[in-house]
Fold this protein.
Amino acid sequence: MNGIEDVISRPDLADRAIFLTLPPIDQAQRRSESELWREFNIARPRILGALLDVAEHGLRTLAGPGCHPRWATACETALWPAGTFARAYEANRRAAIENLIDGDPVASRVRDIMARYKTWTGTAAELLRLGLEGTGNGNWGNATGWPKNPRALAGRLRRAQPGLRSLGIDIVFSREGRAGTRIIAMSWSIERTVCTVSPSAA
C-alpha cells in the first residue's frame, strides 16, 4: 500500500506492518523510464545473485542446531550483525503505533491520562468525564474527537487496545457486583512500570 498520507489507520494492522518513508528525488537525479529500466536490467544479475546468497545463508542458519529464528533474522547475518532486523523492526513498529495514537483522540487522551496514574479503574462514564478534564469544555461530547457517550467511548477504547498495549498500557474490561457494572481497568505493564514510570505518579 502506498500514499502521500498514512493509509493505515487501525492499530492492529499497523502492528503487523513495516513503514517506509521514501526521500524526495532531486530534479537533477530524475531520469526517464527507459533509462531507469536500462540501468536496472544491467544491475539485475547482481541483485539476483545477492538475494540468492542471502537466501542460501538463511537456509543454512535455519538448518543449524538450536532454536529456529524467523526467516528475516536467519538471513540478516549475511549482511548485518545479529539483531539488526529486530531492532529496526521494533523501532519502525513503535513509531507507526505512536503516529496512529497521536491521530486518535481517544488513544492519545488515554495515554495522557495514564501519564498521571500507575493504574486507573472506573466506568466508561467516569472515563468520559475524566477525558474532558483540562480541555476547558464542560459539555460532554464537545471536545474534538472525544466520544459523546460511554458506550461509544468503550467501543473506541477496544479498537485502541492493541496500540496502547504496544506502548505498555494494558486495558481490561470486566463486570463487578451484583448489578454487573461494566468496569474498565487500565494499568502500565510490569516492564513499563518498573523502567519508566516516575515514582511520583499517583
In short: Helices lie at 11-14, 33-63, 71-76, 84-102, 105-114, 124-132, 150-166, 190-196. Residues 136-142, 193-202 have pLDDT under 50 and may be disordered. The CA atoms of residues 104 and 166 lie 15 Å apart. Residues 105-196 form a domain with the Arc Repressor Mutant, subunit A fold (CATH 1.10.10).
